Amino acid sequence: MQFVTLNNGVKMPVLGFGVYQIPPSDTERAVSEALEVGYRHIDTAAVYKNEEAVGKAIAASGIPRDDLFVTTKVWISDAGEDAARAAFERSSEKLGLDVVDLYLIHQPFGDVYGSWRALERLNEEGRVRAIGVSNFPNDRLADLIAFNRVVPAVNQVETHPFLQRFADQEFMAGEGVQIESWAPFAEGRNNLFTNPTLSSIARAHDKSVAQVVLRWLIQRGVVVIPKSVRRDRMEENFDVFDFELADSDMAVVTTLEKGEPLFIDHRDPAAVDMLKGVTVE
Predict the structure, then answer these.
(1) Catalytic residue, candidates 39, 48, 103, 113
(2) What does the pLDDT read at residue 277?
(3) Active-site residue 39, yes or no?
């Protein structure tokens, strides 16, 4: 496994396993199989409503805690200093973990400053090894950095061949923030898995399109958290460290850029309306 070193010295596996949209009833099995395959980085969130199942899989795995990297996130409905602290305690209990490796503000809405104060305190107390954000545009990220004590270690954002975020990654790197990709496969949109450009590169390396996409992101220094409920796909996604894309391959993938989010535009006021009614409970 390859690692990135976050701005506070914490090491984070560059490849993880995401559990977004996995039903709680199937999450324990999926995480258990992912851990058996070799994943040691698990990404969940309070709003996914499967933290407890993640915790059960971790507990049953017998893997030493120090070998695991676990991320969870605080949702908008729990924004604010007191509410975010209480939300962390609930997540910690469900996960069965006294310490979480990475705790993120899930969305750039609500009382972000209050939530960040709670995260800073949790970090100081050693309850969270690193803190960060998710879905923050550069201006919101710059604002948070400028007026707070701790620079976010991570910004987890939609990143894939159709939304490549090179400029965003450059800005984050300049501020010491690690970019992390959610939806690295764009959830198959734009026919990603049959894309002729990606398919041609995959054939040349005797790999799948999914493996090429993950390799392209990893070689850029982007942390990835692919999701699957199928063990064969988990194994396939994990098997990306035995080949390397040439500079020409990397360049060809850049031609697929569309420049627009495929899921949600966090600069659009409609995004607030859509998300404000979503709650953890």
Answers:
(1) 48
(2) 86
(3) no
